[in-house]
Design goal:
Elements lengths: L1 H8 L3 H20 L13 H12 L9 H4 L2 H16 L1 H12 L5 H10 L8 H31 L1 H16 L23 H15 L2 H10 L8 H25 L9 H13 L16 H13 L12 H15 L6 E2 L2 E2 L4 H26 L5 H12 L14 H16 L1 H9 L18
Length: 450
C-alpha cells in the first residue's frame, strides 16, 4: 500500500487528473455493462459500454446507441452522473464531499483543484470551487425549471420534469446527451426546433457552461463594468460573441436555400444561432446534421475545433488559443514588437503555448482520421473528419456514422474524447513531462520561415 501511495504522490498534476478521469470512466463502464442498465437485460459489450462511459465522462455526446431506446432509467442516471462529474471535474466533486464532511483541504488537493479548473493562482481556489458548485446548482436548476415548463405539457409531470433536469445538466456541462428518442432515434432536439424557450434555454446553458469558471468569478466581482474585467475575461467574452455572430450568419447563408428553406424567419434565426452555439461544444442539434451542405459542414468542423474557453465544461483548442494566434498574426503583419490587446501586452510564451495546443490537436486529428479511414473504407473522408473533430472537441455532433464504424474506430474516438477532456496538451504531457527541466541551452542559429 505504501509503495502505491509513493507512486501516486510522485505523479504530476496532469497525470493525476488523467488517472482520475480514467478511473471514473472504468467505473461507469462496469455500471453500464450491468443488465439492469439495458432495456434488453443484456450487456452491451465492453467496447460499447466503454465508448458510452467515455463520451459521458468527457461530456461529448457521441453515442453508438440511442440513449432513450438503449438505456433504462438506471443506465440514464449513470450517464447523467458521469456527465456531471465530467463537466465539473472529478476534483471539484471530491471537494464537494470534503465540504460536507468538513474535512480540511490540503495543499496537494488545492494544487489539483487549480489544475482542474484552470485557474492561474492556487490562492483562493477553494473559494472559487465553492462558487463553481453554487453557480452550477443555480444555473442547472433554473434551466431545469424553464425546460420543464415546455416539456411537462407534452410529456406529463414526472417525465417532463425528469427530461428538464437531464437536458439542463447535459446542456450546462456541454455534453449533448439527449433522451428524445421517443420522437425518433438520434432525433436530439429537432422536435423543438421552433420552440424559443427550449432553444434559448439550451443555448444559454451551453454558453454559460462554456465560458469558463474564471470568467464567472470575474463577472461576479466586476458585474457589468467591462473595463474592470481581467484580460482573460475580455478575450473570452469578445471571442465568444464574435464566433456566435459570425457562425450564425455563415450557417444562415449556407443553409437558407437548403435546410432552412421551409422554415419561417423566426425559426431560421433560432436554428442558425443554435447551429453556431452547439458545435462549441455541446452536441445538440435542431436540424438534421446529415443533410447540411458542404459549406455548413466545414463551418461546423471549424467551430468544433475551436470549442469553448479554458476552465469550462467545454473542449476544443479554446477561444483564448484562437485569440492569441490571431493577435500574434496581426502583430506580425504590422511588424509590432509585442502582441497587444485591450491596452495590455500578452505574456511572452503565450504564442508558444497556443501553437503547441493547436499542433497537438492537429496531429491527433490527422492521425485518427487516417487510422479510421484506413480501416473503414466505406465512409467519405469529410464524414470521418467530422466525427474525429467532434470527438476531440468533446462536441458530440455526428453526420450519422458513429454506430456504423467498427470497434477499432470506436476505441480511437474514445481516446480522442479522453484527450479532449483532459486537454490535448495535458494528455501529451502525461507521457512526456519531466520533473526537472534541463537548464542546458544549445547555440542559436537562424532559419528561414515562410
Amino acid at each position: 500500500m505504501n509503495k502505491w501511495m509513493v507512486k501516486l504522490n510522485s505523479l504530476s498534476y496532469p497525470q493525476m487528473i488523467a488517472l482520475g478521469y480514467f478511473l471514473v470512466i472504468m467505473v461507469g463502464t462496469l455500471l453500464l455493462m450491468l443488465p439492469v442498465a439495458n432495456y434488453n437485460n443484456m450487456s452491451p459489450g465492453f467496447i460499447n459500454a466503454l465508448f458510452t462511459a467515455t463520451s459521458a465522462t468527457c461530456v461529448t455526446g457521441l453515442v453508438i446507441f440511442d440513449t432513450y431506446t438503449q438505456w433504462t432509467i438506471f443506465g440514464e442516471l449513470v450517464i447523467l452522473t458521469l456527465i456531471q462529474i465530467g463537466g465539473l471535474g472529478f476534483m471539484t466533486i471530491i471537494t464537494l464531499f470534503s465540504f460536507f464532511l468538513k474535512r480540511k483541504i490540503g495543499l496537494k488537493e488545492r494544487g489539483l483543484l487549480k489544475e482542474s479548473v484552470s485557474t492561474m493562482y492556487i490562492g483562493g481556489v477553494v473559494r472559487l470551487t465553492r462558487k463553481i458548485l453554487l453557480g452550477t446548482l443555480l444555473f442547472e436548476g433554473a434551466g431545469a425549471i424553464l425546460l420543464s415548463i415546455r416539456f411537462v405539457p407534452k410529456m406529463g409531470w414526472a417525465e417532463g420534469i425528469y427530461n428538464g433536469i437531464f437536458h439542463s445538466v447535459s446542456a450546462f456541462c456541454n455534453a449533448g446527451f439527449d433522451i428524445m428518442g421517443k420522437y425518433g432515434e438520434y432525433s436530439s432536439l429537432t422536435t423543438f426546433s421552433g420552440d424559443a424557450v427550449v432553444n434559448l434555454t439550451i443555448m444559454a446553458l451551453i454558453i454559460i457552461g462554456g465560458i469558463g469558471f474564471l470568467v464567472w468569478d470575474d463577472l461576479s466581482k466586476s458585474k457589468f463594468h467591462f473595463r474592470r474585467y481581467q484580460l482573460h475575461t475580455k478575450i473570452v467574452l469578445s471571442t465568444t460573441v464574435i464566433l456566435i455572430a459570425v457562425g450564425a450568419l455563415c450557417f444562415y447563408v449556407s443553409e437558407k436555400d437548403n435546410l432552412l428553406s421551409e422554415m419561417p424567419m423566426s425559426e431560421k434565426i433560432l436554428a442558425s444561432l443554435f447551429a453556431s452555439v452547439t458545435p462549441r461544444t455541446a452536441g445538440f442539434n435542431t436540424v438534421d446534421m446529415a443533410k447540411i451542405s458542404p459549406a455548413a459542414k466545414l463551418l461546423t468542423m471549424v467551430l468544433m475545433f475551436i470549442g469553448g474557453s479554458p476552465g469550462s465544461t467545454a473542449g476544443g483548442i479554446k477561444t483564448t488559443t484562437l485569440a492569441v494566434v490571431m493577435i500574434s498574426l496581426w502583430s506580425s503583419l504590422r511588424n509590432m514588437k509585442s502582441e497587444n490587446v485591450f491596452g495590455r501586452r500578452l505574456e511572452e510564451n503565450a504564442l508558444k503555448k497556443a501553437s503547441a495546443v493547436i499542433t497537438v490537436n492537429l496531429v491527433l486529428v490527422l492521425s485518427a482520421a487516417f487510422l479510421i479511414s484506413a480501416t473503414n473504407v466505406n465512409f467519405y473522408l469529410s464524414d470521418v473528419l467530422f466525427e474525429v473533430l467532434s470527438a476531440i472537441g468533446t462536441v458530440g455532433l455526428t453526420i450519422g456514422i458513429t454506430s456504423k464504424l467498427n470497434s477499432f474506430a470506436h476505441i480511437i474516438l474514445a481516446l480522442l474524447m479522453y484527450s479532449g477532456r483532459v486537454g490535448s496538451l495535458s494528455f501529451a504531457l502525461v507521457f512526456t513531462e519531466h520533473k526537472i527541466p534541463s537548464t542546458i541551452q544549445n547555440p542559436t542559429e537562424k532559419i528561414n520561415i515562410g
